[in-house]
């Protein structure tokens, strides 16, 4: 991809904070941050040596940058891969947190690393490769980050820089295009990687992991700079939600497979203010789209002034209220908009319609990984905490939060706990389901859970929402990433298939774990000869043999 450096964020190295200053910023108590909404100083990447000194030198490959830009080769298989498991598992995530002598601060900042494991008749090959976004290419060229990442805001220096920052913000030029969240096969065979900036939508080749180029949206929605990192993609459509920061609200848009044109289904206005709530993901039922509005809201001044808010680009405004909006997918009309108890959810699991005796939808049930209405989870994911606090029980509690949104014009919705959180160790995030149950009543969710004490989810959990129990997989000193369910071809039971997760170990290496989804017992592990950093979300591209 073209690597023309923008003239924005042209801060010389002297604009980067010294490590001491940055440590002071990190140590601000969360309570203090939550109380005060004044913007924090601009944070830029610290020097690598300072980060390493702070990190007490763990070998855990989860938080260690990839050592090489790309690798490809055969993988050793321990155990027996099912003969039906033919296809490619792809996983995306932030695998490079250092560039030149600069180091990122937050897990979400790292440059996107794709991992591939291809299964064919009991054998496996693998690869990893950096995605060549502009953010990555510029950073390599300059020896330091140039664009604004999740927690990282290169400081505009003089007046001209500040003016161009505002212009750059309007055009989106100062924002990252580092697509480190999800990887999704579109219904037409193209494969997209993305994060929350619209410009981060990038096409890749699932075989070679080559970066093909930017996905060019051919529509009039170019002014919408932010998108959900989790579009809902089926064989026929790509459905997503675009936060509107100018007129606080959300556009729900759809794009047919094979097309590059998004069409607006409808718009929901925000009920709280002054800006929309952070919306990393959302949920759908067969008839409806559910748009969450939580009190962790985009900070307009952080974006305009290019400085950090109490939670990077966000501020926690509990008094602004929490809401759930339900839009009809066929008419674009908002059919319910209810106030709910304060919540903090990055990932929605699934949703479905609950019907009354006449078979009519009476309520929408929406499940999410809910952090007890506390944004502290964001600060838990700061890299030096992940690296240093391994034996401390500092992972905030989380649960399967279940919303019930009545469709009878009631003003309020309910939020309950779907099962005893002790079943999954009071940790819970990075979820998946059997995709055949998307938007339908379902029984099983797979996620990362917690074997306490821990500072990060270190377990894989299969949650039975009917029995309200969980089956757990755990290995000492290992960090598994999101468990991804792959159905056995022709399966009729919801849990007939395997669950794949890439596990990073303390020895500095990594393997793809394959569990029998029904029993949750290990059936195989496929070893990489190198370490793999923690990754976020995966997908499966099946192959007919
Ligand atoms: C990886 C993940 O879960 C979330 C990533 C979010 C990102 C990269 C957010 C980026 C943003 C900016 C760089 C500034 C503007 C706002 C926002 C979209 C939050
Ligand atoms: C890894 C994570 C949350 C862990 C909480 O326990 C969130 C990742 C978000 C990106 O997709
Ligand atoms: Fe995500």
TrEMBL record:
Keyword vocabulary terms for this entry: Dioxygenase, Iron, Metal-binding, Oxidoreductase, Transit peptide
Cofactor-binding details, from the entry: Binds 1 Fe(2+) ion per subunit.
GO molecular function: carotenoid dioxygenase activity; metal ion binding
Protein name as catalogued: Uncharacterized protein
Residue sites binding Fe cation per the record: 230, 280, 347, 537
Keyword Hydrolase on entry: no
Cofactor: Fe(2+)
Name of the gene this protein is made from: ga09688
Keyword Cell membrane: no
InterPro entries on file: Carotenoid_Oase (IPR004294)
Any one cellular-component term (Gene Ontology): chloroplast
Signal peptide coordinates: none
Pfam hit, one: RPE65
GO BP of this protein: carotene catabolic process
Similarity-based family: Belongs to the carotenoid oxygenase family.
């Amino acid at each position: 991809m073209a690597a023309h450096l923008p003239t924005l964020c042209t801060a010389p190295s002297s604009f980067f904070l010294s490590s001491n200053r940055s440590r002071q910023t990190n140590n601000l108590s969360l309570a203090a941050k939550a109380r005060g909404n004044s913007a924090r100083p601009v944070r830029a990447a610290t020097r690598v040596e300072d980060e390493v000194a702070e990190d007490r030198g763990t070998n855990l490959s989860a938080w260690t940058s990839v050592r090489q830009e790309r690798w490809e080769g055969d993988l050793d298989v321990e155990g027996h891969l099912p003969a039906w498991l033919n296809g490619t598992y792809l996983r995306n995530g932030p695998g490079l947190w250092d560039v030149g002598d600069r180091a990122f601060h937050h897990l979400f900042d790292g440059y996107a690393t794709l991992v591939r494991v291809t299964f064919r008749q009991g054998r496996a090959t693998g690869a990893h490769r950096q995605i060549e976004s502009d953010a990555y290419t510029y950073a390599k060229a300059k020896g330091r980050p140039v664009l604004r990442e999740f927690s990282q805001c290169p400081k505009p220096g003089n007046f001209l820089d500040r003016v161009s920052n505002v212009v750059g913000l309007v055009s989106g030029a100062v924002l990252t295009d580092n697509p480190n969240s999800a990887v999704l096969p579109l219904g037409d065979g193209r494969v997209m990687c993305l994060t929350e900036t619209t410009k981060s939508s990038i096409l890749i080749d699932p075989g070679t992991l080559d970066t093909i180029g930017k996905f060019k949206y051919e529509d009039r929605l170019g002014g919408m700079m932010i998108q959900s990192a989790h579009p809902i993609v089926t064989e026929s459509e790509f459905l997503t939600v675009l936060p509107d920061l100018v007129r606080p609200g959300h556009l729900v848009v759809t794009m047919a497979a094979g097309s590059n044109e998004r069409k607006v289904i409808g718009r929901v206005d925000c009920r709280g203010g002054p800006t929309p709530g952070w919306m990393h993901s959302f949920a759908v039922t067969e008839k409806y789209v559910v748009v969450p509005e939580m009190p962790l809201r985009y900070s307009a001044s952080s974006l305009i002034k290019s400085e950090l808010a109490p939670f990077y680009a966000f501020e926690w405004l509990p008094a602004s209220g929490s809401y759930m909006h339900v839009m009809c997918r066929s008419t674009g009309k908002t059919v319910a908009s209810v106030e709910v108890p304060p919540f903090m959810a990055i990932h929605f699991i699934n949703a479905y319609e609950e019907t009354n005796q006449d078979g009519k939808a009476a309520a929408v049930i929406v499940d999410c990984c809910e952090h007890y209405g506390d944004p502290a989870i964001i600060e838990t994911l700061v890299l030096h905490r992940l690296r240093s606090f391994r034996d401390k029980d500092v992972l905030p509690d989380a649960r399967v939060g279940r919303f019930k949104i009545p469709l009878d014009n009631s003003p309020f919705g309910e939020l309950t706990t779907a099962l005893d959180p002790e079943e999954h160790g009071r940790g819970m995030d990075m979820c998946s389901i059997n995709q055949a149950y998307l938007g339908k009543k379902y029984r099983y969710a797979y996620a990362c859970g917690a074997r306490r004490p821990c500072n990060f989810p270190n377990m894989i959990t299969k949650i039975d929402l009917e029995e309200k129990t969980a089956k757990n997989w755990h290995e000492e000193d290992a960090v598994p990433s999101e468990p991804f369910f792959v159905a056995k071809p022709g399966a009729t039971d919801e849990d007939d298939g395997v669950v794949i997760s890439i596990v990073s170990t303390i020895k500095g290496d990594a393997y793809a774990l394959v569990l029998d989804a029904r029993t949750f017992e290990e059936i195989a592990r496929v070893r990489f000869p190198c370490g793999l950093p923690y990754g976020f979300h995966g997908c499966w591209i099946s192959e007919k043999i």
